[in-house]
Amino acid sequence: MQGVVFLGNKKLEIQNFSDPNPGPDDVILEIQASGMCGSDLKFYRASGGPSSLGLGGDDKPVIAGHEPCGIIVEVGSNVHKNLAYKGMRVMQHHYKGCGVCPHCSTGWQQLCVDGVEVVYGVTGNGAHAKYMKCPVSTLVALRDDISFVAGAAISCGTGTAWGALERLELKASQTIAIYGMGPVGLSAVMLAHKMGARVIALDTNIQRLERSIEFGADNILNPSKSSDIVSEIKDLTNGLGVHASIDASSSPIARSNAIKCVRTWGKACFVGEGGDVTIDVSNDLLRRQVTLIGSWTFSKHGQAECANFIAEKNINVDKLFTHTWSLNQAKEAYELFDLQSDGKGVFIP
Ligand SMILES: [Zn+2]
Ligand SMILES: [Zn+2]
């Protein structure tokens, strides 16, 4: 089979791999949808291999794609029939840890005390291919009322937005500011809106910003057109600031504003990867009782809960995707995604 491999420095290649065989505790997925996640850009642009990103791995070529969604076509000899069976629709929680430590056993394999063993699509073969081998422990059943492309989004970008909102304990009576209208930020807009909260969306790209209105943003603000975005947010919130904020942009200025724009006792959450931020600790945090949260994706249970919320609130996650690609269009797909001006793409291998 063929698989998409990131070579670093914005180069990729479609390479040949042998079709995977399941070990005793594995299944083989026939991939029905493999999403392109914002963090793929980090791997696509990296100047070193996976080891340069602090996620382990040995820099051998791996198949990219960490939003896997498909149908089980082969099942390992040890796998209990109630866990996985041929024809079952599944998403994958794309991390493998030791499986038994306090974090792995609560569904957070990425937080394994021994370090995450595999990040699928980054340090182990992912879903930009026809087939993918995964341990049965990483599977999350996909309800019949959720499409494969929605399942792919929930497997990272949309799930990450869910994880951040869970950490913020957002309430229907609250207002949230969300920075960065890429796939994660837009998902956060959509979910926060359906949770009943008022949403202020921010992005410097006008197309992305205007699109957030379709996903439920109540107010939009363009930081590139404003000299003081924090006071604009205060103007929209009775002078107090928002209850909560998310930075999904990774911009140092947006991060700083995400902290400054929350009201006293407010909470700010960082989900954008990489880069840095400068914080005036006393004025921005301590003297306003602000909680700053770092949130890395979601647990396996969180992934299932996110899918249930989406199904029960009838949320159109498919709408996040503006482009559908075949594997042999991977070069074009990532070149477009790299511009960060458009919506989300998905491969249908
Ligand atoms: Zn572990
Ligand atoms: Zn991701």
Describe the structure.
With 349 residues, the protein is of the alpha/beta class. The protein has helices at residues 38-45, 148-154, 157-168, 183-194, 206-214, 229-235, 252-260, 281-285, 300-312, 330-338, and strands at 2-8, 11-16, 26-35, 68-75, 89-92, 95-96, 118-119, 131-135, 139-141, 175-179, 198-202, 219-221, 242-247, 262-270, 291-294, 321-325, 344-347. The chain has two domains: 2-156 and 298-347, Quinone Oxidoreductase, Chain A, domain 1; 168-294, Rossmann fold (3-Layer(aba) Sandwich), CATH 3.40.50.720. The strands form four sheets. Strands 3, 4, 5, 8, 9, 16 and 17 form a seven-stranded mixed beta sheet that branches. The longest helix has 13 residues, at 300-312. The chain is globular and about 60 Å long. The model has no long low-confidence stretch (mean pLDDT 95). The structure holds zinc ion (2 copies). One zinc ion binds next to loops. One zinc ion (ZN) binds at residues 97-98, 101, 103-104, 112-114.
CATH class label of the largest domain:
Alpha Beta
**Overall average pLDDT:** 95
Number of E-state strands: 17
What structural category characterises the helix and strand content? alpha/beta
Q: Give the proportion of residues in helices.
A: 25-40%
- How large is the radius of gyration? 20 Å
What would the CATH topology of the largest domain be? Quinone Oxidoreductase, Chain A, domain 1
CATH architecture label of the largest domain? Alpha-Beta Complex
CATH superfamily of the largest domain: Medium-chain alcohol dehydrogenases, catalytic domain
**Count of individual helical segments:** 10
Strand content: 25-35%
Order of helices and strands: EEEHEEEEEEHHEHEHEHEHEHEHEHE
